[in-house]
Structures are given as structure tokens and as C-alpha cells.
Amino acid sequence: MSPRTVFIEAAYLLASILFILGLRSLTIPDRARRGMQLAALGMLVAIVGTLVNHEIVRYEWIIAGLVVGSVIGYPLGVYVPMTAMPQRIAISHMFGAVAATLVGVAEYWHLGNGAEVSRPVMAALGFEVLFGALTITGSFMAFGKLQELLPSRPVTFKGQNLVSVGMFAVAAALFAWLIADPAHPGAFYAMVALGLVFGVSLVLPIGGADMPVVISLLNSYAGLASAATGFAIGNNVLIIAGALDGASGFILSIIMSRAMNRSFANVLFGAFGAAPEASQKTAQGLPVHAITPEDAAIQLAYARLVIVVPGYGMAVAQAQHQVRELAALIEKNGGTVLYAIHPVAGRMPGHMNVLLAEADIPYEKLKEMDEINDEFKNADVALVIGANDVVNPAARTDKGSPIYGMPILNVDEAKQVIVLKRSMNPGFAGIENELFYRENTAMLFGDAKASLAKLVHEIKQA
Amino acid sequence: MPGLELIEIYVFVLAGFVGFFTITRVPALLHTPLMSATNAISAISLVGSLVMAGADRGALPTILGFIAVTSATINVVGGFIITDRMLKMFKRADRGGARK
To answer: Positive or negative CA dihedral for A298, A299, A300, A301?
Structure first.
């Protein structure tokens, strides 16, 4: 081994160690920041190590790419608001997949359009461009839905699953053919194209509320594409980082699916809400108890334990700072405020935690579902802000409901439930929520942010 | 050109295990930063892109390499910054500044 190779491999090894330490630090919130800074250092080490690679002879395009990428990446890191985090992450999966796919295509082209590609390398390249291509378009669709450029409701047509599965089968067949004989450029590029179309057809029929699973899954695919790149060019640090990313996305998608009591297959091909069975239990005729901000404020002001249940509605209304203000007032009156975070609240894993942390709410008050569910019966008020399905008792009782079996927050056990909601329109997929009609539930209609501001105002006056 | 060696499969599987056992212990609290962190880390595909863009293998690989370097750099720069921005926000209540 030449000294240069030793240097490069040492840099990659160091980078791999720093990446693993960085991820490990995320198990302890207090150390997470320092750990990730180490991981960033690892990235720098890996880049420096690569730049001395003997194959690199020209630097102008590299420098151009680094500069353009930094100019675009910096604002994406610094200015994107926390409420927009799901779409921000979705689009970054796309960028990662673009890099992996293009490297794969260029590699194939460079090796005589497949003529000099060995079978194992072909297998790696195939996985790389397939996972890459479907992640590119899939993430872009997810981004479009989250950014509301596309309808966030499931977009479906008859026989859609058949078309998707058919495309997947053709791509797999092309892939098998290429492994048998790599020198078929037509098949290779057709496979890339199919991957791109498949990504679209995979994500379009998935509704907004299923986005946590989709984003996690795309995270996993982007990682696997990176790992496959590592196999194709024989680079261990890529394999390691890709495996870590792949494992992470996979675990998150399992956690998310479990939190919705659904299988992967059901999320991907079930097109949730495609046929909303207009929930047999209609709430027709049941009275809704509306409450004025004045009355709600009085209840909150004298509550000893208030549990806040945030949902996507809080993110949309950007109401997290008003939540903190309200909590500060309740705490000043001697009450305790805790936050119950359902795993699939919001549009991506952990989204609510980030928003509440942004509003300076100490993280030990943010409780996971299992931790808080027994507390609801002691709560004087459960304040539901823009959450719907995660507090729907139908998940426990109504076998006909599409969300039956999903673990939910036991909000209905609280002495009083106050629901902040824009109107009585049911949430996504038109599932009625009987919680809203219960005796101990009061509805405070209006924009979450405005309602919270009114509550804060009223408590201050009292 | 390196062929696919068995050792690489070992590396992949073992790294997958390390990832699995590490990441299952990340609390739900930090799942969003986790996702942006792994995303930033997997932008290590920058390493492959750099070689593609700089190895002078002809116009097409260079152009594709350039786009790949750009995309991966976006994730490296943006990803680590935004992860840090998020992690910075997670604070304890610690009145009196006592640290555990």
C-alpha cells in the first residue's frame, strides 16, 4: 500500500468511527449536539481524504460543485423554519438520491456502457440506480405533498396497484437480465427510467397523514442507494454510512407503522381513505359543546395538571410559541403542564418535539405515549391542539373504523377535554371523531394560534 | 476496478447491526434530528461524486459528477447545519443552572 492509500483509508476509518459515535450521541439529548459536531468533522476528514485520491486529476468541477452546493445548502440549513422540517427532509432525501444515482449512471457509462462491468459490480450498480431513482421522484412527490404543491389527499386511479407492481416486476426483470449480461445499455437506462416512474406511482396514492412512514422509508432507500454506491466503487465508508442510514430509516418506518397499527404493505398500497366508509357511526344529531375562550381560560387557569396534545394543526398554525406562553401562565398559577406526543403526530417522526423545543419548552416535559397515557386520568384539562386521529376513541372501540387498533392517547380520561379546532370538518380520510361529542369535551373553534392568544389574554386578565 | 468482495458484505451487515442497535435506543424525542443526521451522514456519497467529477473520464461523467457533487454538498452543508440547529433547541429546564 502506498502512503497515499494508507492516508485515505485512515481518513475513511476515522470518519466511520466519528459517524457511529455521532449517531450514538443521539441516544442522550444532552450530548447529541457535540456528537453530531464530531460527525460533521468526520465528514470533513473523509472529504479531505478523498481529495488526495490519485484518480482525481482535475479540480475545477469539484470546486464548482462544492461551491454551488454550499451556496444552496447553507440557506436550506439556516433559514428553513422548523414547521417546514418534513418537506425539508423529504427534499434532502432527493438530493442524496440524485448524487447516488448519477454516480451509478456515470460509472456504468464510463465502463464501456456495461461492457467492462463485472456481474457483482452490476448487481451493486443496479441496486444503486434503482433505489436512487425511485427515491429521487418519490421524495420529490413527498416534498410536493408536504409543501402543498400537490394534493395531500391520496391520488388514485383504478388498477393503480397493478400498474405499480407491473412496473416493479419489469424493472426487476431488467435488473436480472443485466446481472446475467451487463452489456445492455438500453436495459440499464430503461431500468433507471422505470425506477423514476415507480417512485411517482409509489408516493402519489399515499395520503398526508401517512407521510411519517413514507419519509422514513425514503430515508432508508436513500441510505441503501449510498451503500450500493459503496459496493459499486469499493468504498467502505460509503457502505458503512449507507448501512447506518438504511437501518435508521427502516427502524423509524417500523416504529411509525406500528404506531398506526398498520403494515408497510398497507401503508404503501392501501391508499388510506381511498374509500372512506363514511364511518358507520355518524355523529348526526349529537350535540357539540362549544366553549368560549373566557370559560376555557378559567378552567385552564385553575387546573393543577394540564396535558397538551399537539398535532399537525399546531404546526400548520405555527402556534408552538403561543402554547409555551399559555403554559408559562398556567405554571405561574401553580399548575403543571406536560405534553403528550403521539409517535405519528405531525408529518414526520419527532416533528412535534422539535417544534415545542423551538418554543423553549424543556424537553423533559415532552412525554412519549406510553409514558403519559396513565397520567390522563389525573389531568384536569387535556388541551388538544390540532390533533385528531391520534385521540380518536374509535381506534379502541369501533371495529369498522379505518384506524381501529391504532394505539391512541387516552385523552378522553381527562376530567375536561378542550379541543382547539378550526371547524367540525373531520380530519383526513373523513373519519368522524366521537371524542368531539363527548360529555366532557368542549370545542374551542378557530385558528389554533388565534385561540391560544385569546386564552393567554383571558388568563392574564383574570 | 475493484470487484465486489465478500469483505464488503461483512462490513455492510456489521454496520447495519451497529446502526440497528444504536438507533433503536434513540428516544422518540430526537427522531427528527436523527433523520436529518443520518441524511447528512449518508451524503458521504459525496466521496464517490468527487472522484467522478475529478477523474477526467470524459464529458458525461464529469458533468454528472459535478451535479452529484453539488447535490451531495447541499446535504452535507445543509444537513449538518440544520441538525445542529435542532439539537441546540433541546434544553432541560435546569433552573439555577445545575447540570446533572
So the answer is: positive
d(CA A350, CA A222): 19
Cβ of residue A324 closer than 8 Å to a chain B Cβ: no
Domains of chain A in sequence order: 3-269 (no CATH), 293-461 (3.40.50.1220)
Check CB contact of A328 with chain B, cutoff 8 Å. no
Cα A419 from chain centre = 25
C-alpha cell at A99: 448524487
Here the cell at position A361 is 419548552
ipTM of predicted complex = 0.91
Residue given cell 436523527 in the structure block: B34
Residues 208-227 of A with CB under 8 A from B: 215-216, 219, 222-223, 225-227
Q: Do A68 and B70 touch (CB under 8 A)?
A: yes
Give Cα A338 to chain centroid, integer Å.
Answer: 24
The residue of A54, A82, A103, A372 whose CB has the most chain B CBs within 10 angstroms, and thus the best one to mutate to test that interface, is A103
First to last CA, chain A: 78
A389 assigned to active site: yes
A263 and B39 in contact (C-beta within 8 Å)? no
Assign residue A386 a region: left if phi > 0, alpha if psi is -120 to 50, beta otherwise? left
The per-residue pLDDT string of chain A (462 residues; one tens digit each, 9 = 90 and over) reads: 788 999 999 999 999 999 999 999 999 999 999 999 999 999 999 999 999 988 888 999 999 999 999 999 999 999 999 999 999 999 999 999 999 999 999 999 999 888 888 898 999 999 999 999 999 999 999 999 999 888 877 777 777 778 888 898 999 999 999 999 999 999 999 999 999 999 998 888 887 778 888 899 999 999 999 999 999 988 999 999 999 999 999 999 988 888 888 777 776 665 544 444 444 445 556 678 889 999 999 999 889 999 999 998 898 888 999 999 999 999 998 999 999 999 988 888 899 999 999 999 999 999 999 999 999 999 999 999 988 888 988 888 888 777 888 899 999 999 999 999 887 765 555 567 888 888 889 999 888 999 999 999 998 887
Which residue of chain B comes nearest to A109, CA vs CA? Answer: B61
| Residue A102, Cβ density class (10 Å: 0-12 exposed, 13-18 middle, ≥19 buried) | buried
| Cα–Cα nearest to A86, from A142, A15, A129 | A142
Cell of A297: 381560560
Is B16 touching A (CB cutoff 8 A)?
Answer: yes
In chain B, positions 65-94, which contact chain A (CB-CB < 8 Å)? Answer: 65-94
Asked if A256 and A216 touch (Cβ cutoff 8 Å), the reply is: yes
Q: How many helices (H) and strands (E) does chain B have?
A: 4, 0
Q: Kindly report the number of other CB atoms within 10 A of residue A371's CB atom.
A: 13
Residue of A37, A95, A121 for testing the chain B interface, max B β-carbons within 10 Å: A95
Strand partners of residue A337: A306
Taking the Cβ of residue A246 and every Cβ of chain B, the question of whether any pair is shorter than 8 Å is answered with: yes
